[in-house]
Amino acid sequence: MSTEKIKSEEVKPYQQEAEKKQQVSKMFNNISKNYDFLNHFLSMGIDRKWRKKAVAELNEIQPKIVLDVATGTGDLALEVQRQFQPEKIIGIDIAVKMLEIGRTKINKKGLTEIITLEEGDSEKLPFEDNTFDAVVVAFGVRNFANVENGLREMIRVLRPGGKCVILEFSKPKVFPIKQLYNFYFKRILPGIGRMTSKDKKAYAYLYESVQAFPEGKDFEQLLNNIGLKQTKCTPLTMGICSIYSGLK
After folding, report:
1. What is the CATH number of the domain that holds 114?
2. Of 14, 82, 203, 239, which one is least surrounded by beta carbons within 10 A?
3. Domain range spanning residue 219?
4. Does 45 map to a domain?
5. To which H or E segment does residue 229 belong?
6. Is residue 195 in a domain?
7. pLDDT tens by residue, 179-192
8. Helix or strand run (H / E) with residue 67
């Protein structure tokens, strides 16, 4: 598992000499205008269902204060609000242009008193220990410069008894889904992304980062090792992505 972790940290969108964190921020700022459209279009809308199922994992704790890590344009935060109407949701991200789009969506829905989006480093969260009832993240953990450090920060700010839910891409294992998935992610998706977002590397990086990321039992074991209990992995859509969860 340590080998996979090193590979994940080494996969970067652009030139290898720059820090991954800076490159990820640059990439998401570059594609911010088309990010929501491409997410829904390239997944044929299935990404919305994935988020709904991930957020539904919080049903047992009915959270009142929630942190959305690597919030991007705020879709996961909005889904948390839709399902649970908590007192407060804070989203944090390093890509300021993504946050600007998220704030516009939140403002249009009249939710600025409930949902706050802040610029910040997911691996150095600016919050006290044991602050949140739930910490959630969708498609963000594989972008951490140091996966374990980011996860430890998420657990640090989670209150005892609180729940962590992570939605992340994984790799299908069954024929022919595995072959179709690899062809689409490696050949088709980067081309569409280049034409639409004008960033040549962004959607090639998506495939590369998913390939390097620890998944399934390996990732679940990592969550156990850093302090979560009752962890589980729930594959979705024939293993294209997975929901990981655990209690502090």
Report:
1. 3.40.50.150
2. 82
3. 2-170+213-247
4. yes
5. strand 229-236
6. no
7. 988 888 888 877 77
8. strand 65-69
